[in-house]
Amino acid sequence: MKNRLRDAVVVVAKGFCMGAADVVPGVSGGTMAFILGIYTRLIDAIKSFDSAWVGAVLTFDVRTAITRPHFSFLLPLVFGLLGAVIFFTHIVPIPSLLKTHPEHIYSVFFGLIVGSILVLFADIGWKSPADGMHLLIGIAIGGLVVTAVPTQTPETWWFVMASGAIAICAMVLPGISGSFILLILGKYAYILDGLGNLNLSIIAPFAFGAAFGLAAFTRLLSWLLHRFERPMLLIISGFLVASLWVIWPFQQRQYISVRGKQRLLESSPIAPPWDTITIYASLLALIGFAVVIGVSRLAQFKGHPREH
């Protein structure tokens, strides 16, 4: 009983970290799940809502409907995630701090991601030139996404559905922000307005596309991770490396107004100025880096292998 309670508390804490990451533009919950070593477990948990579960729900097989999904993992994770979103939007408002102190907030996540990349590389090791190719593939794909320019796209139901499917896939992948994908597709404001006005002609195809995309993509990703673990981990590591382009604390950022609020459109890294802000940002990045290294060393000391 004590072990179950302890495990639940740990998952709540990891969900809290994922929620904090989701609040920061350019950082996805998938990135934090990868950093925390629960990425494969998260994908498998989402995948547990399968056809057998749907059949159990439709036939009122309560026992199967309750026991088949990984609720013991998902419920505390969602609890922690929602708690973080509420905490970091109302009590410690990260969205407001990003406008007044962007360098400080992004520095912490920059340090976390750099530390995670190094820990991951240390775990994986380097075996052959193919490893470099897989890493470069991940960097190239991630780089194309994070540097893409938003475009004009149709507002038809099928494209809204496709946008939902693509955006949810991005949210699952580390290093890629789902909201940024919607900006690239030119559907961020359109979807947000639809949600705000409860426009079912927009919400329904978007939700259907997101549900379909999540169900299909998590199964594909789970299959790839279980059968081609090493190449996939290297490709995902490439996504993390590419994400440093937008997580770099010192940026020339451009915003657009969406429903009266400023949303990040694009950003370009710039050299840090020689002032106290750079000093504080460097210290915060080092703290984020040290946290990842410390947690990794603690896990090794206690004999727990790092998950992915």
Global Rg = 20 Å
Please report the distance between the alpha carbons of the first and last residues. 26 Å
**Mean pLDDT over all positions:** 80
What helical percentage do the residues reach? over 70%
| Overall geometric form | globular
Query: Can you count the helices?
Result: 15
**Count of domains:** 1
H/E topology pattern: HHHHHHHHHHHHHHEEH
Strand order, biggest sheet? 1-2
Low-confidence stretches: none
Number of strands: 2
Q: How does the helix and strand content classify structurally?
A: mainly alpha
Summarize this structure briefly.
With about 300 residues, the chain is mainly alpha-helical.
Describe the fold and architecture.
Strand 1 (251-258) and strand 2 form a beta hairpin. The protein has one domain (2-301). The model has no long low-confidence stretch (mean pLDDT 80). The protein has helices at 2-23, 29-35, 39-47, 51-58, 62-67, 71-91, 94-100, 102-124, 129-146, 157-172, 178-184, 188-196, 200-227, 229-247, 276-301; strands at 251-258, 261-269. The protein is 73% helix and 6% strand. The longest helix is centred in the C-terminal third of the chain and has 28 residues, at 200-227. The two termini are 26 Å apart. A two-stranded antiparallel sheet has the order 1-2. The radius of gyration is 20 Å and the shape is globular. Helix 8 (102-124) packs antiparallel against helix 14 and helix 10 (157-172) packs antiparallel against helix 11 (178-184). The protein has 308 residues and is mainly alpha-helical. The chain is built from 15 helices and two strands.
